[in-house]
């Protein structure tokens, strides 16, 4: 049964990599648009990375899971790699904020991992007019 709290809409995610003492790229921001159909688009605060796409679904009361991907330039003119993102979010009672845990990994065009997975966490806020 679907969660009665609506999650579709525009969200701003502010987060950080776990285990990173504040080096370059430790903090990140993403704008995420969840469509009620179960699709999503997102944009990260790295101008080299275009918009990503993916899907989401309810995973129990107050919980949402996401899988999304975006292309990033490959080194030395190679074909682009992909970043695969998996996330789980737990909504607050009013549905306007969510705690998010996520993992992302660089994946080569052939589907093989190009780098170790990175784990992060953050808070997403629903953007309301």
Question: Your description of this structure?
Answer:
The structure is a single chain. This protein is mostly beta strands and 129 residues long. It has a single domain (9-126), classed as Beta Barrel (Lipocalin), CATH 2.40.128. The protein is built from no helices and eight strands. It has an eight-stranded antiparallel barrel. It is globular and about 45 Å long. The two termini are 29 Å apart. The model has no long low-confidence stretch (mean pLDDT 87).
Write a concise keyword list for the protein shown above:
129 residues, mainly beta, Lipocalin, eight-stranded antiparallel barrel, 8 strands, 55% strand
Terminus-to-terminus distance:
29 Å
Name the CATH superfamily assignment.
Quinohemoprotein amine dehydrogenase alpha subunit, domain 2
Shape designation? globular
The total strand number stands at 8
Strand order of the largest sheet: 1-2-3-4-5-6-7-8
CATH architecture: Beta Barrel
Tally of distinct domains: 1
As a whole number of angstroms, the C-alpha radius of gyration is 15 Å
Which CATH class? Answer: Mainly Beta
| Average pLDDT over all residues | 87
State the secondary-structure class: mainly beta
* Helix content range: under 10%
Low-confidence stretches at least 5 residues in length (pLDDT < 50)? none
- Assign the CATH topology: Lipocalin
How many helices in DSSP terms? Answer: 0
Q: Beta-sheet strand percentage?
A: over 45%
